[in-house]
Design goal:
heterodimer; A: mainly beta; five-stranded antiparallel sheet; 0% helix; globular; B: mainly beta; four-stranded antiparallel sheet
Chain lengths: 116, 114
């Protein structure tokens, strides 16, 4: 079953605008990761935020994590047409079926369209 | 650094036929994942290996799906017999494991069952 739920499911904006995507999850996590997927391609890791961190930046990306609300947000500033893709949050949590190994569970994703 | 290699890229089979997918992870990566991604959905974890041992196959339909990771390197995922609902992209990913869970993905194999 999916661990994370992204919101919104789809987002359409103009170049230069900011895009915000949210992710909610259900269980305790070690870290939360964001990935991007261009149409027909594999996923690419964007950023990782640990459970003891509240905010992290990487270039035009800003991620926040609120473990009390079990939620995270990804902000892309000054968006470009090349940012058009699907964005997924993935929770890294203790794998209850194995001896201490973590597993990576993905949400349903947000489809972002950035128009020139 | 070479990425995760998967083959084939595309496969079309008839229902009840069998199919196999191959994955070569990044050298040195202990953890290997197989995910199934149905169109419009997020990747669903099918099976996770740590070296050559299975650590999670709770969502693998074991009556028709099987997977192995020989010598803790390459992996194959097999479906026998295939059903229409198996049409999806099958993604292989690898990570260092305990040291880092950042996953590196292959391009995937798009399976169409007709």
């Amino acid at each position: 079953s999916q661990q994370g739920e992204e919101d919104p499911q789809a987002l359409s904006i103009q170049e230069g605008e900011n895009a915000t995507m949210n992710c909610s999850y259900k269980t305790s996590i070690n870290n939360l990761q964001w990935y991007r997927q261009n149409s027909g391609r594999g996923l690419v890791h964007l950023i990782l935020i640990r459970s003891n961190e509240r905010e992290k930046h990487s270039g035009r990306l800003r991620v926040t994590l609120d473990t009390s609300k079990k939620s995270s947000s990804l902000l892309i500033t000054a968006s470009r047409a090349a940012d058009t893709a699907s964005y997924f949050c993935a929770t890294d949590a203790q794998n209850m079926f194995s001896g201490g190994y973590n597993k990576l569970i993905f949400g349903a994703g947000t489809r972002l369209a950035v128009h020139p | 650094e070479a990425g995760v290699a998967q083959s084939p890229r595309y496969k079309i089979i008839e229902k009840r036929q069998s199919v196999a997918f191959w994955c070569n992870p990044i050298s040195g990566h202990a953890t290997l994942y197989w995910y199934q991604q149905i169109l419009g959905q997020g990747p669903k974890l099918l099976i996770q290996f740590q070296n050559n041992g299975v650590v999670d196959d709770s969502q693998l339909p074991k009556d028709r799906f099987s997977a192995e990771r020989l010598k803790g390197v390459d992996s194959t995922l097999k479906i026998q017999p295939a059903k229409l609902e198996d049409s999806a992209v099958y993604l292989c990913a690898s990570s260092l494991g305990r040291l880092s869970t950042e996953a590196f993905f292959g391009q995937g194999t798009r399976l169409t069952v007709v």
